[in-house]
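Re: the request from the purification team.
They wanted to know what the chain is likely to look like in 3D before they choose a buffer screen. I agreed to run a prediction and write the result into the notebook, where they can find it.
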Amino acid sequence: MKRLMMIVIALVAVAASPVKQGFDVGDQATDFKLKNVDGKLVSLSDYKDAKGYVVIFDCNTCPYSKAYSQRIINLDRKYTAKGIPVIAINANEGSGDSFEEMVRIANKKKFNHPYLYDETQAVAKAYGATNTPHVFVLTKELKVAYIGAIDDSPRNEKGVTKRYVEDAIEAVLAGKAAPITKTKAIGCGIKWRSAS
């Protein structure tokens, strides 16, 4: 009886333990297929010659996303040509983050990088994104090399002293581990759909 009780307690403990959500550094990330602002579907596998990827969960409305907008454009300009495409994904719920608003913002700011609509929020949940912006740098094999903030100065680019994403990208290109693999993503919390 005592042994049976121990087994029951162990099973309850396993059932009560939290299920891991999202990816951690070293995990194998998953591909996705989402609608871009040009109406076409985009996935990581579309980039046949990619040497890695920068996946950024972003939005239209967060002040931090707005402050980082030009820096994201600059990352795309600098690294897509080197084989590391920048892919932004908007999972936010709300009228300011509608697909139509995404198209308007992308056109206004002249985005060259994809800006994808995660309408069901499934990709953000799978990755474990919590904020905007929240960055995942991946190797070409989709191994997570870095998770977190773009740099150490969310409000003002002139104050940047550490460029976490650039350092991670350079490490991926060199076949090395990122010097810093994880930082806190600073930004607005993703606006999740209410369960219905």
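For the purification team: Residues 4-18 have pLDDT under 50 and may be disordered.
Please add any questions underneath this entry.
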